[in-house]
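On clarity, I found the account of how folds are encoded harder to follow than it need be. Since the whole study asks how a given chain folds, the encoding of that fold should be made plain. For the editor and my fellow referees, an illustration may be useful. An entry of this sort, consisting of the sequence and the corresponding backbone structure tokens, reads as follows:

:::
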Amino acid sequence: MSRLLTPALDTPSHITIGSDTFELYLSESVIAERVEQLGKQIEQDYAGKSPIFIGVLNGAFIFMADLVRAVQTIDLEVDFYKLSSYGNRKISSGNVKELKSVDASLAGRDVIVVEDIVDSGISLTYIRNEILKLQPSSLRLCALFFKEEMAQLDFKVDYIGFTIPKQFVIGYGLDLAQKKRNLRAVYKLRE
């Protein structure tokens, strides 16, 4: 049984927010199992090293917490970036605003950026470029969700939880106008 798995609460098959209906997409247990797998892969890849995990706020905070708890065999540190590119919309504005940078020195460090979702890739590209300026020893990227058909990247995302189609999802840290991040499962907008 997964270390992250807790007794599941009743998970509704759908939820309604205003005029939008969202249907269950990924259950809490499916997410926990995949996060555990990602943690094991990171443990293997970083055996004997002490990486620093950089979470992207606000969306990645739940995923980041579960991911670092899934990594048990190596020492690690955590820090955070906070960006804004969505505002209260369902689609990124395309403009990235940095609200908080990392506090730790990243020069010569092994860095893993932890993102909740890669839509267009604009935010991840911004963070990647900023971190590379700080001269880390290595930089790898981890995203819980990756929208392959939308992402416009000229680099690889090293760890991907789930590749998903172009759809709007909420829960497990992902929000709708800063709400519903606290849902234990992930829901997709019914079209």
Observations:
- The mean pLDDT is 90.
- Residues 28-45 form the longest helix (18 residues).
- Strands lie at 14-17, 20-26, 52-57, 77-84, 97-100, 110-118, 138-146, 159-163, 169-170, 186-189.
- The longest strand covers residues 110-118.
